Amino acid sequence: MAPTVEGGDAALLPEFPRGPLDAYRARASFSWKELALFTEGEDMLRFKKTIFSALENDPLFARSPGADLSLDKYRELNFLRCKRIFEYDFLSVEDMFRSPLKVPALIQCLGMYDSSLAAKYLLHTLVFGSAVYSSGSERHLTYIQKIFSMEIFGCFALTELSHGSNTKAIRTTAHYDPATKEFIIHSPDFEAAKFWVGNMGKTATHAVVFAKLHMPGDQCHGLHPFIVQIRDPKTLLPMPGVMVGDMGKKLGQNGLDNGFAMFHKVRVPRQSLLNRMGDVTPEGTYVSPFKDVRQRFGVSLGGLSSGRVSILSLAVVNLKLAIAIALRFSATRRQFGPTQEEEIAVLEYPMQQCRLLPYLAAAYALDHFSKSLFLDLVELQRGHASGDCSARQAELGREIHALASAGKPLASWTAQQGIQECREACGGHGYLAMNRLGVLRDDNDPNCTYEGDNNVLLQQTSNYLLGLRARRVQDGACFRSPLKSVDFLNAYPSILDQKFEVSSVADCLDSAVALAAYKWLVCYLLRETYQKLNQEKRSRSSDFEARNNCQVSHGRPLALAFLELTVVQRFHEHVHQPCVPPSLRAVLGRLSALYALWSLSRHAALLYRAERRRSCPGRRDRSS
Amino acid sequence: MAPTVEGGDAALLPEFPRGPLDAYRARASFSWKELALFTEGEDMLRFKKTIFSALENDPLFARSPGADLSLDKYRELNFLRCKRIFEYDFLSVEDMFRSPLKVPALIQCLGMYDSSLAAKYLLHTLVFGSAVYSSGSERHLTYIQKIFSMEIFGCFALTELSHGSNTKAIRTTAHYDPATKEFIIHSPDFEAAKFWVGNMGKTATHAVVFAKLHMPGDQCHGLHPFIVQIRDPKTLLPMPGVMVGDMGKKLGQNGLDNGFAMFHKVRVPRQSLLNRMGDVTPEGTYVSPFKDVRQRFGVSLGGLSSGRVSILSLAVVNLKLAIAIALRFSATRRQFGPTQEEEIAVLEYPMQQCRLLPYLAAAYALDHFSKSLFLDLVELQRGHASGDCSARQAELGREIHALASAGKPLASWTAQQGIQECREACGGHGYLAMNRLGVLRDDNDPNCTYEGDNNVLLQQTSNYLLGLRARRVQDGACFRSPLKSVDFLNAYPSILDQKFEVSSVADCLDSAVALAAYKWLVCYLLRETYQKLNQEKRSRSSDFEARNNCQVSHGRPLALAFLELTVVQRFHEHVHQPCVPPSLRAVLGRLSALYALWSLSRHAALLYRAERRRSCPGRRDRSS
């Protein structure tokens, strides 16, 4: 049963203050309170309100929008605020397990306040803390308690100056010295400096440092994580042998201190190795539960999926904020009109509606996707924690990896383009710093890059789909995945035979129509990409080249269309559940149809071209 | 005869310093010096070098990229730098008349150094100064000399808090008091405050203020410009009755002090009226050489075309800078490779090439367009200055207005999207402030908004084309314009009958192919838009609504396609001139083809749809 307004608390959803938006609000065809309750649930609304009230009433969080804050001051404030968030202790560990969605909800609330704060908190707890917890063992539990009391402050040091995306080329070394039972952490040169590490610039005392583990005789066991103290917690002065510093001003998120570090033969005890995937015994032998380096590597980077899911949800936050600002402005800003005397709100212009409303729909669809994917991730992590080694668990990991690897690009780009559209749609006023659209754009921008460059990540998703197709062709395997996102592909011959027939515009105003077209599109793109890849492989020397030559015109649109289909599918199902309150069905159905049709329309050229090929199968575009 | 390298001076185009780009540079199929000479000409290269050398050697222009400068300090520095530019006196009035392209070249050089400096200089000289010169009369010449000596510093105050695009709704008043022979400048309320005025925030001593001129008996003669002193040049304190201030931090261009002003019954002498389009005689009678308010209004805002052309050229500067940064980075950054040992430059990836190279081509095509449009504008202004009242002069004004009104949107959006792509293509390093991509993006952003919001401006261009079409249909008038940008439309029935036939990819690698497709597209869009507009007019109550309902899907793509065609046409002709050095023909031809095909490809869905309608003329898309 859906929550109802009556079940709510007037204090939980108070009326908006009276103002120039009243006229538009009065014209709404639905109750916004009912929609908020349906979207969030009462418990979550209460949780978010607790957080926002605390921040509103705490002078440490007071600020002037658009203030000219120096870099140092901003970084200092952000650290103090992060510390205060720990003191508030909004989310107990029990609460986290009982209602896991509160984890991203807390991060989102912080992100609504300031991306730099969300990032700083997230990097310390969910990135540094999770890495210690999931890559370490009992001997590292002592760190966990210190993380939550902020006795130590952490960062995650993987990227180097010369290598980000290509993690296998990371060059920091950790040589084991059996005489002292220590590892010697070393940066061979400037290009191997750890780089871009969030929290490292000013405040981190400890880092999870990824380095290549070498045993005596120079046997290399590949990348392993080590916990390394980089600063004295009392003075924040660097530890001996560590050269650490702040990277300076960035395009945004300037409250976050990104840093670099070089290690000059820094000795750390044997126990600093986070030893879940490989360990060195007190006797000086390397042991690992994994058979080969590749498998070990896969596990050590497994945590990246959760980073991508977090980024996805923060991108959605940025889009939500921007679209609310732009729509409210558009409803009150009047410019031109049917006569010189009568001006109308700019929101009345079809142009303004076309620019903004699809992003409103996108915010709803992506918000739902982000929550649902987070719950999938929780399932995966619970499996890991309980030691599930089943084939299903492995498949779930691969599926979530594929969804997160395209979900982060889709959400971060949608937010980036949406915020820019909102900025422009607010005209000159949108360019004033106090109106926040610039900060949102600049703070959202790195979401397109970190935890994997968007374009590079999309290749992960297209590779996943191509792998399934290859198994189908070679072994006759079914398309089947734990979350069922690829199961429709089994019907691809009949899907590709379908023709799209509608008799009126009204027939299209249901996301089921766009959904059917999307399924067709993904089947078509998968077939074409697979053919193109094989053709390239036959005519080229290497797989590497073949894949690169397929990505622009095939792999990339395939990955994006597949993810858009998944987002549309999940939102369509969500708004067509029986539990949706009848009074919300119309508006939710419209949001779902708008997002689906708008997304699909960006593939219009592909759809036309495909239809043309079908109607003249002998004739291919000359360019192909 | 084209200039040759031999004709140049080794000091003018010195070799690049040796470094990691050498390998790529050595592989070039042409001489970059020859290309620079062809693109700019020796005289212009020398002029630009003079400017850059002066700035390089002057400590006032020293700066640290990505430095954390306070708002006040940055604004102060920018003012001092602007003053120094006047002291350098790079461009004499004679030089300006002899080689008018040096005017935008100077602005572009300043823009290459810092957009805020270019804007500050431009606003004082070409916007404030030109307004005084072209809207005033002999009695205002005394101001001109003070402008160039910077004894006074100016701004152009048209926009108000509540009205920007809709200039007719501007509400500041100027009541004439015959008793004292003064005008009383007054802001009736907060919403009528002058707003966003560049230079007004901290430094302007004088403003050209647009206000509605009222004569006794409250007869209103519409908007007129007045020169009003707003600050004491010695103390920079506001004049009595003037409330003036800085608008605070913006998304970019923070060296420029945008400001607001409210006037409380500020009295200015009768002679403050810039009286070219209307005057009040000493006896207290309003006189004007123009018959009606509309015509007067058109003349008073005529200067906006030149603003748009300047913005266009500054957007091109931003794009040039960003693409050079991104391409150089891509040629040196190595990531992944065919084997684990061998990494390749990211520029080798087809994905990176597809992301960046079209923007390189766009920079060349738009740079040429910007120069050629500036020369057209010079012709128009010379006609104005010589009192040319011919029909051709009026037509030239309309054509340039149409080209500038779509040219500014095309260039500013191309730069905006290009800079964002460059930022992302440089990965994390692109997010570091010192690498300048963020500043370029933030500084370019307002180009999409000021001097007319891009989307609003495009309507000017589509209206121009629709007006020509209406004259053709109603009076049988030929499509003919002084710059011939619309003349091809006379052949529209035969153009629309053309079919696109190529037999190989190689056949497409000439911009002539895309040019033919563009002509077809513009003819098609013009016909469809005209039909849609008439259909809307028949079914709707007002022209206002009809136009609004056509803009999104018809008027906007029409205006953009028309402008892209013009850019492609001019660049195509430019690179196919007989004077192009043979050694440059291949590379210039490729740039021209790449820009044309890339631009055209964004209309692919439209082209497919149009073809489909042609092959089944009875069948229209159900949605239309």
TrEMBL record, chains A, B:
Keywords: FAD, Fatty acid metabolism, Flavoprotein, Lipid metabolism, Oxidoreductase, Peroxisome. It is found in: Peroxisome. FAD binds at residues 159, 198. This is Acyl-coenzyme A oxidase. It comes from the Eukaryota. Residues 155-264 form the Acyl-CoA oxidase/dehydrogenase middle domain. The active site is at 451 (proton acceptor). GO terms for cellular component: peroxisomal matrix. Residues 511-610 form the Acyl-CoA oxidase C-terminal domain. Oxidizes the CoA-esters of 2-methyl-branched fatty acids.
